[in-house]
């Protein structure tokens, strides 16, 4: 695997690197395919063209924005487009978008003609600190998240916080949820730092760059130790066992986005950590109050009924990370330390929703 220092490039250095790569490692401009959604087409593509003008002559593949598009049918449409524009094994896909685009584009790159190259240019905060990092690609199967997918390594990654300027606030909160998670599972100092930040630091790109960089390093270090998720990498799933169930269930009902689902998941799973994994009551309260602040700023109110709790449990039972028919959790031991492969009874999961 490539070393991470040579793998992720920031700001101007990144565009120079990309330009050189495209000029020297791709035989023809017609072999470059940029994948965008209709929103990144409007907001992000002009920024990319501003830095690398000759990309205007490359092929563009545009899909609709949103999680609903993250399915195998969209992949088939993209493959047909690649075929139409005579893509071959030397072709390269540039994924310019949030996690939906990098997940779909990475997946298509991994299967088209048994694998072509791709580069991720994440344009959401969640994409920068999470979705575009860690070699997982995939699409949903009906409402089952990321059921079809591959592990596939991009050539490299380009991070430019300038894209965050047009990102709606709720999407910023969504990415921040994963940054808080990185602190909670592996780095108490980073958690403390995240607690101090104000949303308006968006005006200060340097500060964003530093926080994003630190967050990426935390995730990358974990992924490097366990790329195929056999053990340690599972700690990145903290907040996600319940979070993914919430996201799957509420996607159609109130369009709950990934980050908000994960914030709620982390609150419930911290409570379970307190009950059975040694997390202290003071750590639990600190986590709850910090995350609730973030959550209520968004005013994303949600009441979960008993009936819904049972449906959520059913979804969790189908989670592909389960083993021996048991729902698997990653739980905190303290802020900055996390265990994995923890089994939790259905009654305790139910109880967590009622706290
Ligand atoms: N592969 C992984 O390891 C991994 C990890 C975490 C999440 N994910 C996946 O990532 C997805 C969520 O990612 P996301 O939150 O980035 O979703 P997204 O790609 O749907 O982006 C959110 C919204 O922001 C818009 N957008 C993107 N960039 C913008 C910009 N610069 N300005 C304005 N609007 C912009 C998009 O068009 C979309 O409407 C989920 O499908 C999740 O499963 C994957
Ligand atoms: Zn996540």
Describe this structure in words.
The chain is α/β, with parallel strands linked by helices. The chain folds into 2 domains: 4-166, Rossmann fold; 169-353, Dehydroquinate synthase-like, alpha domain, CATH 1.20.1090. Helices cover 51% and strands 16% of the residues. The protein has 14 helices and 10 strands. It has helices at residues 11-25, 38-43, 45-51, 72-84, 99-111, 125-131, 169-186, 188-196, 205-225, 240-254, 258-276, 281-297, 306-317, 346-353; strands spanning 8-10, 32-37, 59-63, 92-97, 117-122, 136-141, 144-151, 157-159, 328-334, 337-343. A 4-stranded parallel sheet has the order 3-2-4-5. It has a two-stranded parallel ribbon with strand order 1-8. The chain has a two-stranded antiparallel ribbon with strand order 6-7. Helix 7 runs antiparallel to helix 8, helix 10 runs antiparallel to helix 11 and helix 11 packs across helix 14. Mean pLDDT is 91; it is low at 297-301. Residues 37, 39-40, 43-44, 65-67, 70, 97-101, 103, 123-124, 126-127, 130-131, 134, 136, 145-146, 163, 166-167, 171, 174, 258 line the site of nicotinamide-adenine-dinucleotide (NAD).
